[in-house]
């Protein structure tokens, strides 16, 4: 199906050879990498890193209050009926929805 209907450049599964790279382009890329390595980070990057490292991490405090104190609206919630509890055997018998 794919070989008949799809364009050849979009065909999946066929990996062709990498196109040849010009030696000049490879040399330019290597020289740019080396130049960036030799220059090091900019002053803005250094200052941002120093400012970021000085800030202490804010620790999340765990509330030691009781649940009823933390959530006062829970007192207003009323359960109308008892929820059913199923044993493993009853769950195993259940076949699921028809269909």
Shape: flat
Into which percentage range does the β-strand content fall?
A: under 5%
Distance between the termini: 33 Å
Order of helix and strand elements from N to C terminus: HHHHH
Give the overall pLDDT as a whole number.
78
Regions with little confidence, pLDDT below 50 for 5+ residues: none
What is the percent of helical residues?
A: 40-55%
The major β-sheet equals:
none
SS-based class:
mainly alpha
Determine the number of helices (DSSP H or I, runs of at least 4 residues).
5
Rg, Cα atoms, Å: 33 Å
| Secondary structure: number of strands | 0
Write up what this structure looks like.
This protein is an all-alpha fold. It is 43% helix and 0% strand. The protein has five helices and no strands. It has helices at residues 2-5, 23-39, 43-54, 67-70, 88-93. It is flat, with a radius of gyration of 33 Å. The chain starts with a helix and ends in a 6-residue tail after the last helix.
């Amino acid at each position: 199906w794919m070989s008949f209907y799809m364009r050849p450049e979009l065909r999946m599964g066929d990996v062709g050879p990498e196109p040849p790279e010009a030696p000049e382009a490879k040399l330019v890329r290597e020289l740019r990498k080396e130049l960036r390595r030799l220059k090091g980070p900019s002053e803005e990057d250094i200052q941002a890193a120093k400012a970021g490292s000085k800030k202490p991490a804010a620790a999340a405090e765990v509330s030691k209050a009781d649940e009823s104190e933390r959530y006062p609206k829970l007192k207003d919630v009323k359960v109308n009926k008892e929820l059913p509890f199923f044993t493993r055997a009853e769950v195993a018998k259940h076949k699921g929805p028809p269909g």
